[in-house]
Amino acid sequence: MEVEKRLLGNVIKVSIGIILLRCFYLQVIRGGYYHMLSENNCIRTVETGTPRGIIYDRNKRVLSKDTPSLQLVFIPYDIESAEKEAKLLSSIIEVDVPATLKKLKGRYSNPFERIILKKKLTKEEVSLVEENADRLPGIFVQEGLVREYILGQSTAHVLGYTGEVNEEQILKYKEKGYKAGDVIGQDGIEKLYDFYLRGISGGIQVEVDARGHHRKELGRKQSLPGNNLVMTIDQTIQEIANEELGSRHGSVVVMDPRNGQILALVSKPAFDTENLHEYFTRGGHPFLNRAIKGQYSPGSVFKIITAISALETANIAEYDRVECTGSITVADRVFNCWKEDGHGWVDINLALPFSCNVFFGTIGMKTGVTKMVEMARMFELGKATGIDLPGEKPGSLPDRSTTDALNLSIGQGPILITPIQLVSLISTVANGGNIWKPYLVKEILTPAGEKVKEFAPSIRKTVFVSSETMEIVRKGLENVMVFGTGAGSRVAGVAIAGKTGTVQRAHRELELDTQGFFVCYAPADDPKIAMVVFLDRASGPIATRIACNIVKKILVPEEEEPEPSEAPEKTEEEAANVEIL
To answer: The domain 44-231 belongs to what CATH superfamily?
Structure first.
């Protein structure tokens, strides 16, 4: 009996010792850690979002800014039943149940951080959520920020959009402090300049009960906005380009040929940044920025390169003539001109305005594929321009093994060029040989207006082409609008130099017949703007009309607009200007 008592006493002593040691461990050694957990469990600093800087146009008009909104958010730690709460939410407000359930069940590095479920709640939705607060532990309404784009879809492909970081981005930018729920630029200027635009997050310090409900606001942490961007874009020109392009699939780029500043960049179809999910499954590739990522055969616009190549290699002189009877036969191949009855005897001064396929096919065979491709490379075609937008495509140029001189001379075959490259080409012709790097951001400013960084114009390269050749080509481009393929769209009071291009396509490609291009600069004697208009479902003359309407609205104010002059009548074939593959 005595032994049993001693044994029991020892067990009790050991147990008490273990308890005391455990208490010492919990209260002394790990005391700080559990104190933090206790504090986190009753006192929270709930972030209200990271404010981003304002994006201005070149005249300091706002293109994008943050606006306050009420948002539905949750704290992962406080969610009791993801299924029940997602089901309840879907019964009282409009939410995507699968997406909501996925977020509620997600694993987060900090379970006390708020995660956004829905932005821009209506007053009715706020009331419904508040009424059901006791049945939605961990879910509540909170003030936050929403990115607003003043011109809507007009600037979608330039400015891009913002969105919550995904798992891949969290891992990639972990050292920069990004975490679940943070907003990051996902495309366009928002993405490329995210580091500058992103500010410092603020928040609300609140007391919560055991169920995660906010009981008392204890204080606030002030947020700090990011830097502001001043762009080269002109809001007025951007709106004009967007309006003239209308609902057509295509793009418009307007650039200053004197420095490379982009004055407008529009791509359609576009997307609504407030309802992105609706566009992910839409046809027409609304997220494709056709201006920098669309790669197309340039059609007759390439005749500018063919002309310069032939003149510079002395394969033709200015007044050398070729007879166009409507077609030529090379070996067993018939090569057609777009004008069935031909243009007659033409030299380059007539062939360029009339876009004569036979003339350019003939001089292209004399010049050869190698020389034409060399000239295209000299003008940086088939190479990314370096514009400050993410995802630019380079296009591609063929070689002797993949094409022939006839096709290449009129911009057909395995040659792919982007619209931004074509506006660079016409700008180089306009300014006499300087290839400017196109750019969209002029300067970065602090919220107080102090300069952080300034971007100066940059010449990528200077093309050395004889002044005689440039003069012949520029004269031909002017005559395109005087008596050539663009004469029906010329603008009274402004001399425009330009080149049309229509590419006939196979029906298997979206069942479209043609794509249309028009490149131009104006005024012809003192170029201030250069432009490319690309249409995915139309011909060159329609692109020409759009471009000339834009030039008119930019350079001819309504109060100064002169009376329109008579344009020469054009035949049906000339109006169509469809080139044969």
So the answer is: Penicillin-binding protein 2a (Domain 2) (3.90.1310.10)
